[in-house]
Specification:
CATH topology: Rossmann fold
Number of strands: 8
CATH superfamily: NAD(P)-binding Rossmann-like Domain
CATH class: Alpha Beta
Strand order of the largest sheet: 3-2-1-4-5-6-7-8
Distance between the termini: 24 Å
Length: about 230
């Protein structure tokens, strides 16, 4: 149990907490990161109540969570993205894998969740890569998996996860992690610049959820058999 330490920055939020539950259930060692350590500890307690006391989930403030991690998952609102990275960048160990889950929804500027903002760097993940230490291995993933599906542990997640990143080995590592979630199939999305397209699909899916009055719409890539890199 506990193959490595994964810090979920923003793990007290809906999607972040869903990732905490799914990955901890798969046996990963998880640290929930929050601006407030008591809030992080309370979320970790809640996760253990759901999963059982043997679940490897703890809570720390963001800088200490980042310092302890081999993999960092960033799951925060777009408006907090830059400030949150700056708050932990001095604590990130060399060669840490950084998985950006953030989507630049227009809600960051008071707009509609069914539209996405243009990011100067091209994508939120590329924005992260610009700010993070040069030896950080940046990838993007989990954009199109809704929080409700992640937290519904009684059912598999019906969604492919497209993983983007400039380093092939990093993409493979993140794909292996995503494949630990029942129902998820990881898809190699190529270079980090392709995250722009994947991020904007989230706004499209939110609109589909609204129009069809559902909460769990996701994506599937056809023509690719089974789970494979």
């Amino acid at each position: 149990m506990g193959k490595r330490t994964i810090a979920v920055i923003g793990g007290t939020g809906d999607q972040g907490f869903g990732l905490v539950l799914r990955l901890a259930k798969a046996g990963e060692k998880i640290i929930i990161g929050s601006r407030s350590q008591p809030k992080a500890e309370e979320a970790a307690k809640k996760a253990r109540e759901i999963l059982g006391e043997k679940a490897l989930v703890a809570g720390l403030d963001n800088p200490n969570a980042a310092a302890a991690a081999d993999i960092i998952i960033m799951s925060v609102p777009f408006a907090a993205h830059i400030d949150m990275i700056k708050s932990i960048q001095q604590n990130i160990k060399p060669d840490t894998i950084f998985i950006d889950v953030v989507v630049p929804l227009s809600t960051a500027v008071g707009g509609n969740p069914t539209t996405a903002l243009s990011v100067w760097e091209g994508s939120t993940a590329q924005q992260a890569a610009r700010i993070l230490p040069a030896n950080t291995k940046v990838a993007s993933a989990f954009h199109n998996v809704v929080a409700e599906s992640l937290q519904d542990l009684g059912n598999e997640v019906d969604c492919d996860v497209i993983v983007c990143g400039d380093i092939r080995e990093t993409r493979k590592s993140v794909m292996d992690l995503a494949n630990e979630i029942p129902g998820v199939r990881a898809i190699d999305g190529g270079r980090l610049e392709n995250s722009r397209t994947v991020e904007q699909l989230t706004a499209l899916l939110i609109g589909i959820n609204i129009r069809y009055k559902v909460k769990h719409s996701g994506i599937r890539i056809t023509g690719i058999p089974s789970k494979q890199p």
